[in-house]
C-alpha cells in the first residue's frame, strides 16, 4: 500500500501522523471540535430576593453580597451551558482549575477537562456583564497523538427580573391561613410572643426547602393569631411545630376561591387551625375520680400536675388527660394563717373573714403564724404554694 494523505490539507501520513477518518492529526482536531459553546449567554436573577434558575428551578443564592451573587449566577449559567455544549464524543467531563488543566497531557478516550476564569467584567449596573476564558482539553479518538486543546471567550449577561415567588408575594398572594387559637379562651400575651418566635424560626427552616413557604401577613385578633401563608404545606408544618411545643388539635377547612385560568381546575384556599389546650400554668383542675391538681406545666407531651392532696408532682400525656376527664374546675381562692399545729391537724384562720377551720396536716412543713394560699374545691380546702 502506498502513502496515505489527509483529504483536507494533503499532508502525508508520515508527516502529519496517523490519519483518523481520513484526516491528519491537526485537521481531525479542527474538524471535530469539542467546545461548541456560543459566545454569549443570557441569564437572570431576582432583584427582590437574589434567587436564580438552576437547571430550570429557582434556587436561593449562597451569597447575598451583590458582587459575589452576580459571579455565582454567571458561573452557574456558564457551567450549565457548557454541559450542553460539549461534543457528542465526550462521555464524561470534569471542571478543574486553569493551573491543573495547563499540565495535563494524557486523557482516556471520551474524557474532557474543563477550566474557566473571568477575564473581564462590568457589574456596577444591570445587565451585569462577565466575560470568561473557557478552555477544554479532551481525547476523542485512540489514534490521537495530541489532545484537543480549545479555548474561547464567552460573555454572560446577568439581567434582573422578579422570580415567581416574589411576584406572588408582592402581589399579596397567599394559599393558606394558619389560625392559632386556644381552647375556650383567648391566647395570652406570653403565648402570642412564644408562638410568634417559634413561627419565625420555623419559617426560616421551611423556606430552605419550600420557596413558597413565606408568611404574607400576620393578623393579631382578640382570640388569637392568623398567619397568611404562601403554601399549604408550610401552614401544616407550622401547625405541627406549634402542636409539638404546646399540645392541641389540628383541623383543616377548605374554601373554593376560583378557577385556575390555565388548567381550568377549581382552586381552594385551606384554613389550617391549631387549637392549643385551654390549660395554663396555675390552673386548678380535677379528674373524674375527684382528685384535684394545680397545673405546673403545659407542653406538647401533656400536663405536669401537682396533686393538691398528696403535694406530689405527676405527669399525664394528652391521651390520659382525655381519658381521665381532667378539666378545669370551679374553685375559690383564699389566704389563711396557721394558728396552731397538732400531730394530725392544723388550725387555720381565713385572712378575710377571720373564721377558723381545721384541716388534716399535709406532708409539707408548716409554721405557726405563716400565711398560705388556699383553694377550695367542692367544699374541700387545699394548700397552694406558700404566700411569699
Mean pLDDT across residues = 89
Give the strand order of the largest sheet, numbering strands 1, 2, ... along the chain.
Answer: 1-7-6-5-4
Number of domains: 5
Number of strands: 22
Residue windows where pLDDT falls under 50 for at least 5 positions: none
What's the gyration radius in Å? 38 Å
Oligomer: single chain
Helix content: 10-25%
Structural class, please? alpha+beta
Characterize the largest beta sheet: strand count, sense, and whether it forms a barrel. 5 strands, mixed
Keywords for this entry:
388 residues, alpha+beta, 5 domains, 40% strand
Give an overview of the whole structure.
This protein has eight helices and 22 strands. The protein has 388 residues and is of the alpha+beta class. It has five domains: 31 residues, no CATH class; 127 residues, no CATH class; 102 residues, no CATH class; 50 residues, Thrombin, subunit H; 59 residues, Nucleic acid-binding proteins (OB fold (Dihydrolipoamide Acetyltransferase, E2P), Beta Barrel). The protein has a five-stranded mixed β-sheet, with helices on one face. Helix 6 crosses helix 7. The termini are far apart. The model has no long low-confidence stretch (mean pLDDT 89).
